Amino acid sequence: MSRTAHAHPLTPRRALSFVLNLLLALLALALLPGRLPAALPDATTLLREVDRVLQPESFEMYRKLINIEPDGSRKEWVLYSVKKGQDKILALFLSPASDKGRSTLRLGDNMWLYIPNVGKPIRITSLQSVTGGVFNNADILRLDFSVEYDAEGIEEADGQWLLRLKAKTGAVAYDRLKMWVDKQRTVPTRIEAYAASGLLIKTLYYKDVKDLGDGVLRPSVVETDSPLYKGYQSVMIWASIKPRKLDDEVFTLAFMGRVEELRR
Amino acid sequence: MRPLRAWSLVLGLLALLPTVAIAQSAESEFGFDVAEFEKAPYSLGGLLELNAADVTLNPDGALYRLNFLGQEQRDSLHPYGAKLQLEGGYERGWLALSFRVLASGTRDELGSTSETVVQEAYLAAQPAPSATVELGKRVTKWGKGYAWNPVAFVDRPKDPSDPELAQEGFVLARAEVIQSFESTLRNISFTLVLLPVNEDVNTDFGAEPATNVAGKLTVLAWDTDIDLLALGGGTRSSRWGLDFSRNLGSNVEVHGEWARTAEVQRPLLQPAGSVQQRSGPADAWLLGLRYLTDFELTTIAEYYVNEAGYTAEELETFYRFVDEGAVAALHQAASPALGPYRQPNAGRRYGYLRLSQKDPFDWLYVAPAATAIVNLDDDSRTLIAELGYTGITNLELRGRVMWLQGDPFTEFAEKPNARKAELRVQWHF
Which of A98, A124, A244, A251 to mutate to test the interface with B (most CBs of B within 10 A)? Predict the structure, then answer.
């Protein structure tokens, strides 16, 4: 049996009904993003974008580290650091006087500490801390996240992207990370670091996004606390990050006693 | 100043520390003005140290009898003193002048001593990160070991009971070139050292005037630091060796050194008092590791073998000779000819173990440590208990007690001291 299409005459009532239906459909469309999950970005691509926003590939920067004890007393360090490529970073302690001239070098999973009095670099490990407190060497000499971690999953949580990261090797300081990423700025707002046992080692809070020079717009403060250090807090503050071309020879053991030459 | 007052002074300084801590806690919220850290062409800094010790002497020890030869016997000493270390430099273009001077004074019941030593003073030309040339008095630290460094061919020997003390350098010329690669071989560097000896400089590096030539080839490959080192053609017998260091994980590092000296000459005392000369090639080597536990306990362990050292029996012969000998024998034992018997760590095989706990019980900047240095041939040992505190900016406190133990006629039982308790306060500026 064949069907025959019947044409309906356009009456004022039908026209009003059509307009109302159209308005309702537009309203529903406007409300949809808040009610249904948005398309998730690719986790690996997002992680690389986070790295790109946080720091240029080759740069110099000035940072201050602060350890705060439960009674409010604090100890501060100022570091000049340079980074090149994906896995080379070098830091020089500028203050306090007791640590001035110390330098730390990281090449991939390898780390060294140079103390002027000792006069030679000694190997250190990522879980040790050259300053004491909640920040360890891996935090102070942090490489790009995508160099050390694989993005295993992504979801939406609290209006942000939540990345689940897994260490690529056993030499990485934390086995797993949960990273909450601001959707608009593509910068981390909070990172939880876990040991292989599932124990929460520390939480890092990224705050105060601002231009740190040459268009590097990123969080200028990272606060961290740890259930292993109840009542203690460590803070890292960035004053400037500037892209800079550096020779590969800067990132060698032989250069660790000469880092001051780079400052100008 | 009497010993009791010296201790009172150091303890009084400790009593002031809480006040300093409170003053620090009253500082304002986070602030960071990077302009404060702009580079100046000159730099000047240093440290001031006050120290005091309570030393229990070991009058039965062979080295006590030699060190205090002809003196009234004592059971204890109470030295106290101060050190002032000044260091600085001046840079202009790619030239840099650096120095470090240490002035120290000590007083005890036997009198007072003081000295000022220029530990380093050198001119460096640094035209590029890949090349540098230095001329002057300079400390050269070779080797990967913590307590001992068999490959430290152009260094002064360090004290295993306090390996991180600043040392005095030698007058030398040093040139270094570095090259990096993007491959398994990450970088390579070569260091050439010329160390002259004559009646004016480096007199403790040899007797006859000559120029020592030393070289070090360093590579970082397969995530391992490797050095090949050599010294030859000068005032000391030729020697060569290698060392390595590698991280096996995020919390463990291993290292090692091996060195061969072409000819080592050692006096060998016979029971009757005659001295033979033993000579020939000798190896020295070391294996060690550094391990960090989940609860932040750092362990440093090293095993050191020095074939040129004395066996337990040879050391016992020397100690018995001193113990049983007449005055003439004591003078012979104290002579330079038998100096190697009196050196620190004169034996053949040693073990070193250091355990240090970071921030125990959540006490930030508190660092208790325990160290054992053992002569593995005679089982004598030095045990050290230590407590450090670095919680106040630019102040470092360290208290420690050292015990020397062993059976009669063993190395550490024959040292001049049986026990030493010391307190040290350092202020960095």
Answer: A98
Residue A23 distance to chain B (closest CA, Å):
53
In order, the DSSP letters of B110-128 are TEEEEEEEEEEEEEEEEEE
What distance separates the 2 farthest-apart alpha carbons in chain B?
Answer: 75
The reply to whether A90 falls in a domain is yes
Mean of pLDDT values over B308-320: 95
Residue A237 to residue A67: CA distance in whole angstroms = 12
Place of tokens 């990077």: B34
- CATH no. for residue A222? 2.50.20.10
* Chain pair A-B, CB pairs under 8 angstroms: 175
Given an 8 Å threshold on Cβ–Cβ distance, is A132 in contact with B180? no
- Residue B153 identity: F
Alpha-carbon span B427 to B393, nearest angstrom: 9
In a domain, A2, yes or no: no
Q: Does residue A144 belong to any structural domain of this protein?
A: yes
pLDDT in tens, B366-394: 999 999 999 999 999 999 999 999 988 89
Q: Which of A34, A75, A124 is nearest to B300 (CA)?
A: A124
Helices (H), B243-326: 312-324
Rounded distance between C-alpha atoms, residue B311 and residue A246, angstroms: 53
Q: For A255, which of B178, B251, B429 is closest by C-beta distance?
A: B178
Nearest to B364 among A110, A133, A173 (CB): A133
Report yes or no: B385 and B400 within 8 Å, Cβ to Cβ.
Answer: yes
Measure the CA angle with vertex B162, ends B281 and B137; round to 5°.
70
- How distant is the Cα of B98 from the closest Cα of chain A, in angstroms? 12
Distance from CA of B100 to the nearest CA of A (A): 10
- Put simply, the answer to whether B27 touches A74 (Cβ < 8 Å) is yes
pTM of the predicted model as reported, rounded to 2 decimal places: 0.82
Count how many domains chain A has.
Answer: 1
**Average pLDDT, consecutive stretches of 10 residues, N- to C-terminus, chain A (264 residues):** 46 68 61 57 93 88 91 90 92 93 91 86 81 81 91 92 93 91 93 93 92 83 87 89 91 92 85
DSSP code at position B347: B
The per-residue pLDDT of chain B, averaged, comes to 90
Set of chain A residues whose Cβ sits within 8 Å of the Cβ of B390: 98, 132
CB atoms within 10 A of CB A21: 10
Interface of A with B in 67-106 (CB under 8 A): 67, 69, 71-76, 78, 80, 94-98, 100
Sign of the dihedral through C-alpha B160, B165, B169, B175:
positive
Place of tokens 């030095």: B382
Domain annotation covers residue A214? yes
Mark yes or no for CB contact A252/B180 under 8 Å. Answer: yes
- Contact status, residue B81 vs residue B424, Cβ threshold 8 Å: no
CB contact under 8 A, A258 and B290: no
- The residue range of the domain holding A133 is 43-262
CB distance A131 to A67 below 8 Å = yes
